[in-house]
Design brief:
This is Guanylate cyclase domain-containing protein. InterPro entries: A/G_cyclase, dCache_1, GAF, GAF-like_dom_sf, Nucleotide_cyclase, Sensor-like_sf. It comes from Azospirillum baldaniorum. The chain has about 775 residues and is α+β, with helices and mostly antiparallel strands. The chain has four domains: about 90-225, Beta-Lactamase (2-Layer Sandwich), CATH 3.30.450.20; about 230-330, 2-Layer Sandwich (Beta-Lactamase), CATH 3.30.450; about 395-550, GAF domain (Beta-Lactamase, 2-Layer Sandwich); about 565-779, 2-Layer Sandwich (Alpha-Beta Plaits), CATH 3.30.70. Helices cover about 40% and strands about 30% of the residues. The strands form six sheets. Strands 1, 2, 3, 4, 5, 6, 7, 8 and 9 form a nine-stranded antiparallel sheet that branches. Strands 26, 27, 28, 29, 30, 31, 32 and 33 form an eight-stranded mixed sheet that branches. Helix 1 (about 15-90) packs antiparallel against helix 7 (about 330-395), helix 7 packs antiparallel against helix 8 and helix 16 (about 630-645) runs antiparallel to helix 17 (about 665-690).
Length: about 775
Amino acid sequence: MARWDIVDVDADPAEVRRRRRRRFFRLGVPILGVLTMAAALVGTALYSYAMNRRDALLLTQNLIEALDHRLASQVSTYLEVAADAVGILSSVDGGPEAPASETLALAVMRTRPHLTALYVGAEDGRFMMVQRSATGALDTKRITVGPKGRTVAWTRRDADGRVLAVEEDPGDLFDPASRPWFRAALAENRFVWSDIYVFFTRQSPGITVSRSISGGSGVVAAADLDLTDIGGVLSGLKVGASGRAVLVDGSGRLVAVPDVGSMLRPDGETLRPARIEELGDPLIQEAFNRIRIAGETRGVMEIDGDRYVVSARVLRETLGRNWWLLLVAAESDFVGFVAANNRTTLLLSGAVVLLAVLMAGFLAWQAYAADRAAHAMRRRQRELERQGAALAELGRLETIADPGDATALRRATEIAADATVADGVSLWRIDGEKLICADGFDRESGGHVAAAVIPLDRSPLLSKNLLAGEIVTATDAASDPHTSGLVPYLDATGRRSLLAVPVRAGGRTLGCLWIEDGAGDAGAGEGFARILGMLLSPRLVASRDHTLAAAEQPMTLAVEAGGLPFAPSTLRSASIASERNRLQLREIVRRGLQGDQVQAMRFPQVTVLVLRMADDIALATGDAVETVAIGQIVAACQKAAERHGIRYLKILTDQIVAAEGFDGNPSAAAARLATLALETDAECAGLFTRLGRPPGYAMGLDSGPVMGSAIGFGQVAFNLWGEAVRVAGAMAVAAPGGAIQTTEATYALLRDGFAFRARGAFYLERLGEMTTFYLRGRL
């Protein structure tokens, strides 16, 4: 069982609930408060942003509306001045030849600098015009028609109005009655505005307003108005950081733009006003296309994913035609400061929240540290109480120092495992260049192991520290250089951490005490292990002085069978194997059989492997490409048996039986069978994983006497039977799915080269109870 699987059964449920409540109030409440504060600040910032943005947009709408009215008023006034001048001139009687017409025209032109010309014409060709020259002076052109014919004369003046010269131009064929402005004014009794055109003399965009003089005299007064100054008004308008305004007629022809140079486009040898699509501003063009559909508007438009404030107003009342005053500005120009201020507010709020988090975190950390310290103190107190009780119980073991009392040692390791909440506790004695396990207790299975051997040179750093009397603590044994050499042993038992405490006496290290995957306090565990080591040191001293070598030497058994000596040469030296062999020999003698009757078919020390397959449906699984599952398992066993020289391999219904050890080398035979079992286990595990099924197989291993003989007629087959075959089968039946269970006899043969984990007790007829083990891997 891993450390994280251990449940602290000593904890009081009521105390656990109280501790959780304290932790909530110490940690949860400050964190909840900080989160509430952060949520309140964020909510306030979002609400403030929404309200400020709404108010900013409202102010923007009011600003745009004011600018719109102001521009409309300026444009209307600009145009109405020309209409007023025409109205004044049309009130003079006498037509073009009246002296008052020129005098009045000169006076009006001086007060209205954006008028380029003011004139009056008659149907018979008479004409009077006051025109502003390129130098700003006012010149007069007069066409008279009399008995002597038609005369065209120019009066040139300087800027102060003094006459410089009077010139005649006989080549001038101008006829006012043929002009569009003249004909339109005669047709309608109102002010008539021409289309936008380019003045020939000034090469600038302009417009003409005309009106017929009442009385049906066929006389029309008119004025030319330069539109360049309107562009100047638009260029001086500041609508946000990126706003612009244009004046455009209903057909899309530009009337006035801030950049006067972009107003004109060449048209052959002349110039014409540009259209809005020729302006090179897709935003203005898109806004104009939308207002042509929607009509007058003032609001927010989304264009290409961006929001713009748009105002469109038609000047129909002034001109009698659809001239659009269009204002466009990015919404961010007006509400961008709101977002910037909101970001600043959020940053400041975030700083406040961060300070609150740091403060709450500090307080929570202090509370948590205090809670952990109190919990650790209570836990350590419980451990000390538990270890004190364990030491008291150890003190009652009177024979703990007696190397001949295995029961006392087993009880001591069990007490140590409970006291340190460890998965495993074992006592090892140093015998030359190796560690020999005196007893090892597995807390999960409740079983004990002994006699396992680990060479000291497998972990030289661990050996060096232990011989120097130093404790070795490895939280992760695989990555710790002191214990990395023990990984095969620890991995086989599923252990990760190791606490190795030297057992010393007389200034020498006699062995060590291992605590594997201890869940208790490390300091308390070390202290307890040192005390236990001192209690066990007399046992190791006695073991050194009174070695059990005689018990470990090979035994030669001789059983009299009807007076015939019977001494098998390949008997195992382990006591259990020897006893099983002795019992079988006694049974042979009891039945009165002679040696020549049984010698040819009796094998005293054979290791038998039984593979039991329990999932019938899974064994039958397969398709046209793959062999059925049982066929794959059998093929894998056959190949492994060939590799390792296993001579006996048979399939019996849902079991596969393998055996080896017929030549009198039981340890080597057991090792080959164990290797076969591990390889077969890997193959079966992969197969059942691919099938998506739990392991439907188990294996059992036993070493002991068997009987064998050739049976049948024709094609003779060799068959084995006997106690080892039955016990190996019982091990396979009792093992959980995917496990390899071995008897103590097989464990004794394999313990130096393979890793095991004790499972528990198993009753063997005539011998009584013995320990069984799980084979986990090779060392």
